[in-house]
Amino acid sequence: xxKLVLLLTATTMVAGLVQVGTAQAAAPAxxxxxxxxxADLQGATxxxxxxxxxxxxxxxxxxxxxxxxxVGPSNTPGASASSGINLYAGTPSLPVSDWSxxxxxxxxxxxxxxxxxxxxxxxxxxxxxxxxxxxxxRARDWTPITLRMSTIAxxxxxxxxxxxxxxxxxxAKTQVIGHYxxxxxxxxxxxxxTPYGDKAAAQLLxxxxxxxxxxxxxxxxxxxxxxxxxxxxxxxxxxxVRAAEAQCAELRQKLGPMTYAQYxxxxxxxxxxxxxxxxxxxxxxxxxxxxxxDFGVESxxxxxxxxxKDLPFTSTGTAPTVSLTRGEYExxxxxxxxxxxxxxxxxxxxxxxxxxxxxQATVAPVGSLNVTPTNVYHRPTYAGWTxxxxxxxxxxxxxxxxxxxxxxxxxxxxxxxAPGTYHVTVAFSAAGKRTRTMTVAAKxxxxxxxxxxxxxxxxxxxxxxxxxxxxxxxxAAQEATKHQYWSFLHDYKxxxxxxxxxxxxxxxxxxxxxxxxxxxxxxIRDHYGLRDFNAFYLWAGLLNPSxxxxxxxxIDTWIAQLRTAMDSYRAAGVDKYAYVxxxxxxxxxxxxxxxxxxxxxxxxFPDLPILTxxxxxxxxxxxxxxxxxxxxVPQQDLYNQQVAERTxxxxxxxxxxxxxxxxxxxxxxxxGYPPIDARTLVGPMSYKAGVEGVxxxxxxxxxxxxxxxxxxxxxxILSAWRAATFNGTAGDGSxxxxxxxxxxxxxxxxxxxxxxxxxxxxxxxxxxxxxxxQLPTPLKAxxxxxxxxxxxxxxxxxxxxxxxxxxxxxTDVIATLTAVRGLE
Length: 824
Description:
This protein is an alpha+beta fold. It is globular.
């Protein structure tokens, strides 16, 4: 979306050629753009004209035609994550630029595809002031869009001088289609939209093959109960199959002309049945695996999500297997499935681990948060109860009859574990039910990769947020809590560090930035080992971009602060590990300020590395910053492989970072994204790109203002803790949770650690191949193929989300490392 906004900003200059030079009279209420002629499309643009297109079609919600928008696939070279239509004032595409005197601007959107995402609408005036909002794109459904004039005007947009209106749709792996029509000015709200909805329903019924959808569902339902017996559990499940069959037949009978009031529950019923049938198949499969059981127990991959409600999951059977190297973590999920009756007091415990001391194993229920995806996701994502917190605090949960309950089984191989296959048995019990067991087979290979991460991390952790939400005021308790969280981060392969060096919450007004205390550095060194640390954050917010004559005074203050800090580091023997971070995402005049600042830092401290995320896609070549910056960290979607390799060739490093603008098709760790994305990002994707490190702006953005009603994840398995973090996007800036006893891990964080370990495996394989030039040519060639990771990653936009494919590649990496060492 950010790229689209940049494009729109650039194209505004073009639109300026056709903008109305003098104020127009306000248009009367009613439909002002209906796309009834080809001329009405003049002046409208799309993001990538080579693959995105707009055309008039006979699918209107008003009049005789409407605008159909076809969005090219996400793998299109040079394509942004979303594609937008831009209607410019002063052209036939947007004939009205004065929206004043009205309450609402409305229009219609619908899609006939099974595609549920979030789009974005932007309004910009002729002074370049903009306002935007998300809008829902629902599968096979109509969305009446309502833009309130009071809301737009409150954002500072001049509604008498509109420059353009844009609306976007996220791309998918294949092309997607949306329909827009009946742009109207309305003087009251709410208003009667029934005629528009009824016409949208007629178009949807014509465009969607509901008969084919229902026929497919009927065929799936027919085969569901073939494996069921005659016991009470079987009869309950048969009743559910019969109910699904009846629902399918009832929906088929309703096919025919409908009003939208009739169409909406019809479409919702089809959607619900499309979810019910595969979930019922999950349960019946579990029943078939043990006909004597009182409830089902299946497994699922740790790189996938098992939703408690609505959605099905991919079972990996009743006897899962995993592969580990010595000293490594791996995970698997178990899933408890009720046989159409509620379960109470469900507990899970590890009852046996073979091979004394070879493996550690724990099990805990997975909790869920109520997630609402935002437009930055750029991909279809379920809205509702989404699994993520690993609830080590809960020893017993109740599982309603319609709920799947996942459990997280965490394994770690000892560094001294003998090679072989070990077995971990986990028992699942429920009140009044016979206990079920699952045995996990864990193959430990005779190799190990380094325990310390080879991929650098610079992630912000903010102790002040922890102190605030837990109400910790005693300095000694604050220090102990900080160390607790540092240990947690270290366990998950994240170096304890602060990007924004302050004892405060960095997002607060006027944060006091100070160098990292030497006592913190020494504690980290003595307890976790010291790779590097951020000595000081050079906050560009202290510089006035329009007054360069004032910059030097602040720079002198920074140098003085750094000098005192560096003296303390030198006295403690840790100065060689220090770097400075500054000018976070700076651009414009602040690039010159960065150049002046970095030159002063280099003059005072020639050996002190400088790390920055400032906006320079050339990594110093175009701005003259080459030679002043040591570590370049662009946003991941701005990372250019050729530029990065050029940067490394001159001796600098090139990292990357994900953030809220890093939406699909790039990986991220938003709640609801497939967990494999987090693993791939810091594992094979980072290794393939050659990045030396990953940066992230926050790991614990749990602001009290966002979570006032539930500060901690300490309630039920379906927690009321608000999933939305930065700008409403769940998981952005929050990689784990505040539990009742301290930090609580997440599925996303577990996959992050697994990815860091995978990166180390690749590092170790390359190291061993380079250290053994006498290896057979076929073995070296196969190792090179695995190191390229082509089986799982093409580039940062194209990678597998299939856990089975990923595991096959990873196992091959371990087996090849074993062969290179001659241990097979």
